[in-house]
Amino acid sequence: EAEKEIGFFFPPEDTLAVIKPHTERKEEILEEIQARGFSISHLKDTILSREMAEEFYKEHRDKPFFSQLVDYMCRGPCTMMVLTKENAVEEWRAAMGPTDPSEARRTAPGSLRARFAKDMLENGVHGSSNMEHAHQKIQFIFGDIGTESVIIDGAASPPLET
Ligand code: UDP
């Protein structure tokens, strides 16, 4: 009987989402995030230093696009957010769509990257790829805020600070 109930319950989960520098129509993206049922638990605009951008994307340090990715990520303010929802990591990845916006427009036309990305590098948004990264990057960007957010009312989001 208990198992049956657990089968329908996913605990709230946090993921780190970023609106990358020079992304246009940021307000629309913020509205879309809330319309898709994510609570924006924390939000701040930050200009990353080179060192921070390198640390943030350290998993990609051996990739050919690493230095242009780091240059880009510190070229202007990033909007950093903790998004909270059941299954947030996977759902935010799905909401973003594929890395390459032309692929996104083909395979996931409603996704954020299909609609808001400029190109492969300046693809609008970032999201953690798994829960371990989510916890690590939330800690890195926001410090010790705790990541076991509890949603009191699924529809409630704190007021946006920009
Ligand atoms: N990127 C790029 N060229 C590539 C692959 C990735 O410029 O060939 C950039 C792009 O901004 C991407 C980021 O590097 O969002 C991180 O790449 P990843 O493969 O982790 O994609 P994501 O998880 O962001 O979809």
Give structural notes.
It is a single chain. This protein is an alpha+beta fold and 162 residues long. 39% of the residues lie in helices and 17% in strands. The protein has a single domain, classed as Nucleoside diphosphate kinase-like domain (Alpha-Beta Plaits, 2-Layer Sandwich). It has a four-stranded antiparallel beta sheet, with helices on both faces. Uridine-5'-diphosphate binds next to loops. Uridine-5'-diphosphate (UDP) binds next to loops.
Q: State the CATH architecture.
A: 2-Layer Sandwich
Small molecules held by this entry: uridine-5'-diphosphate
Here the CATH topology equals Alpha-Beta Plaits
Provide the spatial order of strands within the biggest beta sheet: 2-3-1-4
Give me the secondary-structure category: alpha+beta
**Overall 3D form:** globular
Main sheet, how many strands, which sense, barrel? 4 strands, antiparallel
How many helical stretches? Answer: 8
List SSEs in N-to-C order: HEHEHHEHHHEH
Indicate the mean pLDDT: 89
> How far apart, in Å, are the first and last alpha carbons?
46 Å
CATH class category: Alpha Beta
Instruction: Tell me the β content.
Output: 15-25%
Q: State the fourth-level CATH superfamily.
A: Nucleoside diphosphate kinase-like domain
How many structural domains?
Answer: 1
The count of β-strands is 4
As a whole number of angstroms, the C-alpha radius of gyration is 16 Å
Helix content: 25-40%
Runs in which pLDDT lies below 50 for 5 or more consecutive residues are 148-162
